Amino acid sequence: MKTPIRVAVTGAAGQIGYSLLFRIASGAMFGPDQPVILQLIEAPFEKALKALEGVAMELDDCAFPLLKGIVQTADPTVGFKGANWCLLVGAKPRGPGMERADLLKDNGKIFIEQGKVIDAVAAADARIAVVGNPANTNCMIAASQAKRLPPERFTAMVRLDQNRAQTQLAKKANVDLTEVKDIFIYGNHSPTMFPAYAHASIQGKLATRVITDLAWLQGPFLETVGKRGAAIIAARGASSAASAANALVDHVRSLVTPGAVHSVAVKSNGHYGFDANVWAGMPVRTTTAGSYEVITTYAMDDFAKSRLAATNKELVEERAFVADMIQ
Ligand code: NAD
Ligand code: LMR
Asked: Is residue 271 flagged as an active site residue?
């Protein structure tokens, strides 16, 4: 039996938490032979902590063989202690008519504190994955507070966008979605994101040879993927939760699987024209469990370059908006 890993999850009693924790405890995130200890962190409010108690009871009632312990706390220093993975989900979701960036000032404060505490008490090998919106900039904020843990350990989730794009391409081409490969998301988890359709393949052929309707690829496709979160809020009255939890399972699973290639928002080193020190979606390949390299070899045409410039501009503006907070 392997040594259990400690997985801290914030917002554990929220919507995403309710879909996520059971998948982690069942082995979907770290594999069927990897025991886990769940360290569940909630906001310090009676209602949230009471709800967390209920979630913990349900986890107990599942009798998951891999679940070796549950910590319930409102104290981040307890919740992140010794954590090997810190999944930062807890934050306010947007409502109808809002953009994710509208959450920055409120949610940004959470990530200042959590970045500091994680840096102080998490395990030496800690990895951090940010879901709370606006995810890219919250990730940058958390990383800015860390002195011990290097910035590459901090990633933000754009995998939901990749999954959405894959499905849209499969539907348009009328193929099974497993036949759509190499569709990667660049930039911000916002409507400016760029799913680079020109690099995708469908049944082993370039996607643009299978879907020859460029107007659809540059119009409705980008629009549908970029605004899918808002469409779900409009339809459901609440932001995506099960699909977001599923994408986080995929995000972490791929990051611990050597050879996996997927879209992750990581600290830019100038690749694809992103400003240094913004966290931008790009394709990465897992090298060893938990470590990755950015794939820098994809060529961009003029249309792609203009989209990358637009999403970079938004990330730079978000960073400027919180500059006073992160000093
Ligand atoms: P929710 O409101 O259902 O749950 C959020 C939970 O976080 C609540 O239980 C709340 O008490 C808790 N919380 C708030 N502040 C906290 C803190 N400081 N520490 C610990 N817990 C705290 O929201 P949700 O639907 O689960 O969404 C959570 C976040 O994820 C939102 O910001 C949402 O916009 C974002 N999201 C991101 C993606 C993505 O693709 N990146 C997808 C879906 C949702
Ligand atoms: C999503 O993409 O579904 C989430 O980021 C929630 C939102 O606000 O759109």
From this structure: no
Q: Which of 189, 199, 251, 262 is catalytic?
A: 189
**Topology adopted by domain 5-156:** Rossmann fold (3.40.50)
27 Ramachandran zone, left/alpha/beta (phi>0; psi -120 to 50): left
Q: Is the CB of 243 under 6 A from ligand 1?
A: no
- The pLDDT of residue 102 is 86
**pLDDT mean for each 10 residues of the chain (327 residues):** 97 98 98 98 97 98 98 98 98 87 88 97 98 97 98 98 98 98 98 98 98 98 98 96 98 98 97 96 96 97 98 97 88
Write down the domain spans for the chain.
Answer: 5-156, 159-321
CB distance 163 to ligand 1 below 6 Å: no
**What is the pLDDT, as a whole number, of residue 310?**
98
| pTM, full prediction | 0.98
Domain 159-321 coded CATH 3.90.180.10: no
Instruction: Report how far apart, in Å, the C-alpha atoms of 66 and of each of 1, 72, 76, 88, 166 are.
Output: 10, 18, 24, 22, 31
Q: Which residue has its alpha carbon closest to ligand 1 atom 38? A: 131
Q: Which ligand is nearest to the CA of 98?
A: 2
* Peptide bond preceding 283 in cis form (omega within 30 of 0): no
Given the CA of residue 160, which atom of ligand 2 is nearest to it?
2
